[in-house]
Amino acid sequence: MSEIILITGATDGIGKITATELAKKGNHVIIHGRNEQKAKQTVAEIKQQAKQAQVEYLIADLFSLPAVKQMADKFQQKYDHLDVLINNAGAVLDDTRRETDGIENTMALNVLAPFLLNQLLLPSLEKSTDGRIINMSSGTHRQAKPDMNDLNLEKESSGQKRYGISKLFVIWNSQHLAVELQKQGITNVTVNCSHPGAVATKFGQDSDNGFFVNLIYKTASAVSKIPVLGNFGAPEKGAVTNIYLASSDEVKGLTGKFFNNKKQLEEPETKEYTPAREQKIWNYCMKICAPFLED
């Protein structure tokens, strides 16, 4: 049965491959991008591989919460429900740390945009018999050491460290949302996190995160071009888990979990975790997003 699937950051890399494979399965796929020309081109390329599939696009700058709200409104005006939301968009941002609306951009894109989109599209997901939210996290969360008095990440100068912290917050918010939905008796919507592994995409290539971190990104890209090693870090490998979480009956009803890049369920890092910290980041995100959740 065809399902309606929305994937953010789907004009390149893992998101594009995820969209293509899910379209091949006969799903109605809506890709999100920032550039309309690139989004149109991506839709055309996906349709070449999945000729019978319905593939459309939505445009939004996810650094801007008003733009997230506008995208959610456009989705709900056009579609009567949503089966799967894949929050794939994310970035390692360099030390210039641009800010949008006073929010540090790592937090805006990696944490607050998916948080707000989850909240705004929850009514659409509730109309599905098997609504699924998949939040992209990262294994870098295991090195994260968040300053809980600096939730806007203004004091952290390293783009890589801000990224790891943001992906830890994504896990905590996902766990919290899963419990909240259960408390509200919403049993037909699940929330899980995925880790794509080290893959060779353009991700991280344009960020200045220090010599050694930059070297890792460049090396991953180079390795993918070596015939013998090419599949080790291929983007196709990074898309496997999201495709699995979006389409497999094996995970139906499973919620609040973390899956690694081999589709395996595993425990996220807990050394920085406390229930109070989870609640604090949830409250922080809810406070910032509240103006966009008002009727």
Number of DSSP strand runs: 10
CATH fold-level label: Rossmann fold
Q: Residue-averaged pLDDT, rounded?
A: 88
Q: Approximately how much helix is present in the residues?
A: 40-55%
CATH-level-2 architecture: 3-Layer(aba) Sandwich
Beta-strand proportion: 5-15%
Write down the secondary-structure element order: EHEHEHEEEHEHEHHEEH
Stretches where pLDDT is under 50 for at least 5 consecutive residues are 199-233
Q: Kindly report the spatial arrangement of strands forming the biggest sheet.
A: 3-2-1-4-7-8-9-10
Overall number of domains? 1
What is the radius of gyration? 18 Å
- Count of helix runs: 8
Main sheet properties: 8 strands, mixed
Question: How far is the first residue's CA from the last residue's CA?
Answer: 33 Å
Q: What is the overall shape? A: globular
Text of the CATH class: Alpha Beta
User: What is the CATH superfamily classification?
Assistant: NAD(P)-binding Rossmann-like Domain
Which structural class do the helices and strands define? alpha/beta
Topology:
Elements: E1 4-7, H1 13-24, E2 28-33, H2 36-49, E3 55-59, H3 65-78, E4 84-87, E5 99-100, E6 103-104, H4 105-126, E7 131-136, H5 159-183, E8 189-194, H6 211-223, H7 235-247, E9 257-259, E10 265-266, H8 275-289
Parallel strand pairs: 1-2, 1-4, 2-3, 4-7, 7-8, 8-9
Antiparallel strand pairs: 5-6, 9-10
What report would you give on this structure?
- This protein is an alpha/beta fold and 295 residues long.
- It has one domain (4-292): Rossmann fold.
- The chain is built from eight helices and ten strands.
- The protein has an eight-stranded mixed sheet, sandwiched between helices. Strands 5-6 form a two-stranded antiparallel sheet.
- Strand 7 (131-136), helix 5 and strand 8 (189-194) form a beta-alpha-beta unit.
- Helix 1 crosses helix 7, helix 3 packs parallel to helix 4 and helix 5 packs across helix 8 (275-289).
- The longest helix is centred in the middle third of the chain and has 25 residues, at 159-183.
- The chain is globular, with a radius of gyration of 18 Å.
- The two termini are 33 Å apart.
- Mean pLDDT is 88; it is low at 199-233.
